[in-house]
Amino acid sequence: MKKKRKKKPIKVIVISFIILLFASILLFIASAFVCAFKDLKQEDILKQEITNFISQDLATGNFEVEIKTKGDYAYIERAVKNHFKNLSENVKSVNDYNDKLSSYLEPEKLQMDRPNYKAAHNMVNNTKIKIKKTMDNIKDLCKEEKIKNLLDKNKIDDYKYYYDFYIQLIYTKEDQEMFQNTAKKVEKTSKYMNEYLEKIDQLLYYLEEIDKQIQYTKEHVYFETEEALQKYKNFLIELDNITEKINSKNNIEEAKIDSV
User: Is 43 exposed, middle or buried (0-12, 13-18, 19+ CB in 10 A)?
Assistant: First the structure.
């Protein structure tokens, strides 16, 4: 005789299903909580990284890019850091040009370049072109349109969320003022540097004009007449005055962004 198999009560099956469903819900909630926690942690890391990075002096700070976040946060971090690295490199270039200006008038170089000082004139003209290009780059990097369009919406999943987060992070009222002030300082610095270069050109033409009255040594320039010497000194005084304006604390080398 065959034994009849006992059927499992429907009640047991239902309870098991409810337990599994409840466990799945708990697992889902836990996963969501972990993801949210990780996102908040990534946001905190990004905020701190950007705060430290952009609060440096543009002319002296270390703007080497090192990414500390992941995912879409890493994309934002890289975009911001690369932008400020580019801005800093251009600011430092301006200061490099400034440091090299006085070298055009070293007696030893002038002696080798006399009587028409062609090499010095060419350096002056080339420097004017380089300064203009650098200044244009800085002004472009400070434009509102440029800053607001650093992020590519095709490279971020939730573009609106991350874009709003990015704007709050990098384009506060203080940041806007900083960018505007930097652009104004660039204009002022550019004006003074071009004045300096124009004055060097004028001095070179003067030296060419009185070449027969000049004797050079490795470190000094000698003139046959007091009048020629005095005019040369006046040029140097004017150049020193322009240099003071270029190096003023109100100019570009002091440009800084306030902390987020």
Answer: middle
Place of tokens 């000194």: 233
Cα(67)–Cα(72) distance, rounded to whole angstroms? 12
pLDDT one-digit tens code per residue, 142-152: 988 898 888 88
Q: Which residues are 40's β-sheet partners?
A: none
Integer Cα distance of 53 and 62 in angstroms: 8
Amino acid, single-letter form, for residue 238 = E
Stretches where the chain sits below pLDDT 70 are 1-40, 249-260
CA distance 215 to 223: 7
- For residue 89, the one-letter residue type is E
The candidate with the shortest Cα–Cα distance to 192, out of 235, 121, 252, 233, is: 252
Biggest CA–CA distance in the chain, Å, is 140
> What's the full length of the chain, in residues?
260
The model's pTM is 0.74
The H or E element that residue 22 is part of is: helix 10-54
Q: In terms of DSSP H, where are the helices of 70-172? A: 71-101, 107-113, 118-141, 144-148, 159-170
Tell me the per-residue pLDDT of 182-234, one tens digit each, with 9 for 90 and over: 888 888 888 999 999 999 999 999 999 999 999 999 889 999 999 999 999 99
**Are 226 and 233 contacting, i.e. CB atoms less than 8 angstroms apart?**
no
